[in-house]
Amino acid sequence: xxxxxxxxxxxxxxxxxxxxxxxxxxxxxxxxxxxxxxxxxxxxxxxxxxxxxxxxxxxxxxxxxxxxxxxxxxxxxxxxxxxxxxxxxxxxxxxxxxxxxxxxxxxxxxxxxxxxxxxxxxxxxxxxxxxxxxxxxxxxxxxxxxxxxxxxxxxxxxxxxxxxxxxxxxxxxxxxxxxxxxxxxxxxxxxxxxxxxxxxxxxxxxxxxxxxxxxxxxxxxxxxxxxxxxxxxxxxxxxxxxxxxxxxxxxxxxxxxxxxxxxxxxxxxxxxxxxxxxxxxxxxxxxxxxxxxxxxxxxxxxxxxxxxxxxxxxxxxxxxxxxxxxxxxxxxxxxxxxxxxxxxxxxxxxxxxxxxxxxxxxxxxxxxxxxxxxxxxxxxxxxxxxxxxxxxxxxxxxxxxxxxxxxxxxxxxxxxxxxxxxxxxxxxxxxxxxxxxxxxxxxxxxxxxxxxxxxxxxxxxxxxxxxxxxxxxxxxxxxxxxxxxxxxxxxxxxxxxxxxxxxxxxxxxxxxxxxxxxxxxxxxxxxxxxxxxxxxxxxxxxxxxxxxxxxxxxxxxxxxxxxxxxxxxxxxxxxxxxxxxxxxxxxxxxxxxxxxxxxxxxxxxxxxxxxxxxxxxxxxxxxxxxxxxxxxxxxxxxxxxxxxxxxxxxxxxxxxxxxxxxxxxxxxxxxxxxxxxxxxxxxxxxxxxxxxxxxxxxxxxxxxxxxxxxxxxxxxxxxxxxxxxxxxxxxxxxxxxxxxxxxxxxxxxxxxxxxxxxxxxxxxxxxxxxxxxxxxxxxxxxxxxxxxxxxxxxxxxxxxxxxxxxxxxxxxxxxxxxxxxxxxxxxxxxxxxxxxxxxxxxxxxxxxxxxxxxxxxxxxxxxxxxxxxxxxxxxxxxxxxxxxxxxxxxxxxxxxxxxxxxxxxxxxxxxxxxxxxxxxxxxxxxxxxxxxxxxxxxxxxxxxxxxxxxxxxxxxxxx
Length: 959
What we know:
Helices cover 48% and strands 14% of the residues. The protein contains 36 helices and 25 strands. 3'-5' exonuclease.
């Protein structure tokens, strides 16, 4: 086969736009690029500035270029007998067809392949399928992104890499792929068919290194063969080794491995404090700022303790990101520097693991809700099975529709066949659980800790010592898990998975299995199922109506601009039910009664079918239905407890979004105070709990955290140690905090014109001096939107890009990557950007904090906590609002200096930090940057003076 890889640069993406450059790379059948054709094209119109900015192609460059006729005459002969390939090929193909038509040639009728499809299928774990990102990942030279010849060549080299990878796939995998695409009348089907025929002629079409089972090729073997790290070794490697001796050995190895390794005082203190807490059975609150190296600060004592005492240590993180970082960065490093074998297992929530039985069922039946997208995801996963050792969905880049697909194949306790499942020994969830059982250290997350408590400690292996990283989130996660959170779509998903229409859903699948059997009772069961269909449709209708009734209760937002959809929130009080509540209760009762009837009939029918001698091969299906019945029963009970509104210690509220109305409805019932539960689950039961984070203290005191987490008793009994570690950075030299003291103030979450104009002008001037490289943190999305357009306009004239969360497409990590990739840019972010964003080095020079990050006082949970404090004669503002805001403020500040080389400026535009009695708590809680306040007009000159002094100091140090 001969391939032609095509790329056009154009004046826009409409079919009426003109081509300005052509790139065509020819790949011969020996998989080498034999020829690259490229030419500028004179479009006969001027090139829009946006396109010039993107491609670097100017009117000057194309003015003497040939016109389209000449270029097509040279190009058409190269397109004879080729398969056309492109990255997002539909775009280039449309331009090709219209150019052939305009210049009098016949349309292209050959086969067309898209490298995007190949990358998704063959490299399912790539974080991005953008050409420039993939090129750097594969180390393919791509000097001039968005120029046609460079793009075409890079695409050709990437396509060759895909073809080589496909050659190495096992025959079974190719058979599966060919079968998947067979029904699709697509060129992908033709391609995999051809590859399959080629593979069938090879001597050994199923290469070693894979396990072959039930017509799938897997990377993993049976997990039952996995053994503990020091299996068969009777002597304890730490028998008579002190922690100090152990650490000396580790440090020697670290020095040998990392040439610029330097000991950090803060890390050494942390190692000793964590070790001491473990040895003395105490709890520890330890604040460790950025740069401490806190993951090693708790992992090394955890490994030492668990191996020496044969006593498993549990580590919990808040985010999956941190769990992944420990898996990919810290554990591999420790494996090399700890002088004996140990096992650290990552154990996540069950829904993160693929259920192979469900996946096999889905593929064999081609049970796809949206065939075009889901066939692609299925193909990705078939290839992924030849690569993954964990079956963890975090490894997959499934695109937007992936979530719905994953839900249907994820592992669940209610639909698990356990030992009677044909896939049991290969099962990813049981592998992870088994590995956690034999590991020395288990790394899980806060959510799983609480799910384990709710499941009566059946999920995690037992443990006496626990390290909680990102501990400032523990209370929040506890509230979510110990309370109720139910979304409109949670219920809808369960209903539609049981029955969507007579062909789709688990009940219709069971019905068609029953129809094909000889049992006398099968027709009776079929008519029971038909009855269940009607009931489920009634429930869906009532649930829609109930959601609408609840949504309508929410008041219009007073601070919303006209036509602004916004988030709605309404708190519901147990003793003051809205007047519509009777009608809502009646409707909920109707749902409760119908569902109870469905569950009774459905469960009885399932147990009758199970008693039949012939199991119709549908044991898995019945387990799935049984699992969905359990889900719907939990949702029914959750809804009932919410509608009752009868617990004074619970705060009830509903949320929704103006765009999606009742479909966005979420209902919450959360305990007002979780400290008593945290105390009984953790601090009373466990020998030692170590809690760490960069932000636990407020003005050097831990009192707020001690009260929130229920540690008062431990503190009074001398079972609690607290410690603030010294910062490893020299903040006085590395950071300057500036406050413009005459800056206009603002009331509420939205600024007036004077405030917004002053802010936009000041941000633009500051960003100009710092050459972009600026992160601006807002507390309200409304204000971010007010600033985005005018700032973008001002800075575009100065060559600085503005990227806005929610304004530009992409999630947090995509926006952060874009910001890091463009040297002169300003990133505007709200809540999720205040923490967990890591932008070390040159990419970030200045941080602007627009408002102090107080939570909106009218949020139901904050409101309920405040009322409770008032009853106890305490000041809710000082006891709750200020400490929460200070912790958030410290998190935001922590984005700036991420290493001992980083330098930067923080501008705080909120003058309350100077004028109010509580402002000092914010300033005193910071790790000691240089602080100055001045009139606004002096701010930019002061910043540029500081930057110049820093540069001179930096260059004299490096001389």
